[in-house]
């Protein structure tokens, strides 16, 4: 029994049907971790990208170093750090939040690069034209540069969304009951690993296909020359 | 020509690292004067325009536009100090620029390309801005293209939008940096025609870099030959283009007029 649902090992289909609700609860946890982790990565990445673009090296350099450090170390290390070391400093987060935070932190390094590359791909002449028209720097960024960067940024971000989802099982090491962890527990207790693992594999495949389809849809429907705001 | 110049470069130097692009340049333009800048690649022609458009800062000297220093501000003791953003923004409104690569905003319609800055910067209402855009699109013979996106227009049409967009801010000075160099040969004429018309009908000071010598002869009051960040020779177009004194000018003109040799 898990999450209050008992399993029925009397046959193949009864077993599948009985563990389905349990796996779906795990799926829900996986999705939540993906979405929250992704949201953190989007915001933190934007912050890092802004810092890396700062005119003073005093700000830009540490931001670059942080990005590089995060990128070059395994997700597991950051997860262990947040889970085992932060409490020493009096900061204890629930396992799930720690996991989502670790995912967000790891992927903020990647998203910050996506933002940077997207913004740099906008031709310099665009900024110069706006300047020649006396447009304010803030408005130039939000209405000239950003709209042209978005069609390049969004598909790349979508790919990281899928990656995050596939990294969620790492959170099982800090006791988060995400889908794969749930499947393993079912296997441990029923000695049937094949069925729950296969179901998890299929669910992952479905999610990835849906996400890939969504990204492709965005790719073809975002105007390639930029998104006019309003 | 005894009036106060509208543009004045006073011993201006501009360097990129060790490389000197403008070398102690003295240069003046009178109000309403049409000046063409010619010269070999790398001689600093674009840089002169970019300095005026405040796209490129200078290292030494003072540039005056309409009598006021462009890259400097007067402090209380009447000394010049480097200009702050607000000063640059104010000064910029006196100039408009047409770029070689057009630099239209690809995600905005033609109308929006024209009205975006006047509405935000000059505070025009939508109706006022649309009205002004309509007039200027008529002027450049694009009255029925306002709802298209730049990507739907030919190069010649795009550059005419570029001209109209710069005029929207009602600048007193228009800068053209090789406005037809990126165009297919058959589209050059329509853009030059619009610029010529503009020169004839508007009280504008025009400063243009071009390799269209025939056009330069028609439109300019003065031609300046730039070489290594200085003006080597200048004068009325007939004089400079037909009987230049300097050997380097002759070489340059020969090369431009006989590109196949
Ligand atoms: N941002 C920059 N950094 C370094 N060097 C630059 C930069 N911009 C221009 N230069 C150099 O300054 C010199 C003058 O440039 P400029 O664009 O004014 O020449 P130009 O006369 O317009 O030439 P062209 O006919 O090729 O357009 C060139 O040698 C160019 O390589
Ligand atoms: Mg040039």
From TrEMBL, chain A:
CDD domains: TM_PBP2 (cd06261). PANTHER family: L-CYSTINE TRANSPORT SYSTEM PERMEASE PROTEIN TCYL, MEMBRANE COMPONENT OF AMINO ACID ABC TRANSPORTER. It is found in: Cell inner membrane; Cell membrane. Keywords: Amino-acid transport, Cell membrane, Membrane, Transmembrane, Transmembrane helix, Transport. The lineage of its organism: Bacteria, Pseudomonadati, Pseudomonadota, Gammaproteobacteria, Oceanospirillales. GO terms for biological process: amino acid transport. The chain crosses the membrane at residues 12-29, 35-54, 75-97, 193-215. Its main location: membrane. InterPro entries: AA_ABC_transptr_permease_3TM (IPR010065), ArtM/GltK/GlnP/TcyL/YhdX-like (IPR043429), Ectoine_EhuD (IPR014341), MetI-like (IPR000515), MetI-like_sf (IPR035906). It is a multi-pass membrane protein. This is Amino acid ABC transporter membrane protein 2 (PAAT family).
TrEMBL record, chain B:
GO terms for cellular component: plasma membrane. The keyword Zinc-finger does not apply. It comes from the Bacteria. This is Amino acid ABC transporter ATP-binding protein (PAAT family). InterPro entries: AAA+_ATPase (IPR003593), ABC_ATPase_HisP-typ (IPR030679), ABC_transporter-like_ATP-bd (IPR003439), ABC_transporter-like_CS (IPR017871), Ectoine_EhuA (IPR014343), MetN_ABC_transporter-like (IPR050086), P-loop_NTPase (IPR027417). Gene3D superfamilies: P-loop containing nucleotide triphosphate hydrolases. One of its GO terms (molecular function) is ABC-type amino acid transporter activity. It holds the Pfam family ABC_tran. NCBIfam families: ectoine_ehuA. Keywords: Amino-acid transport, ATP-binding, Cell membrane, Membrane, Nucleotide-binding, Transport. It is found in: Cell inner membrane. Belongs to the ABC transporter superfamily. It is a peripheral membrane protein. SUPFAM superfamilies: P-loop containing nucleoside triphosphate hydrolases (SSF52540). PANTHER family: AMINO ACID IMPORT ATP-BINDING PROTEIN, GLUTAMATE_ASPARTATE IMPORT ATP-BINDING PROTEIN GLTL. Residues 7-253 form the ABC transporter domain.
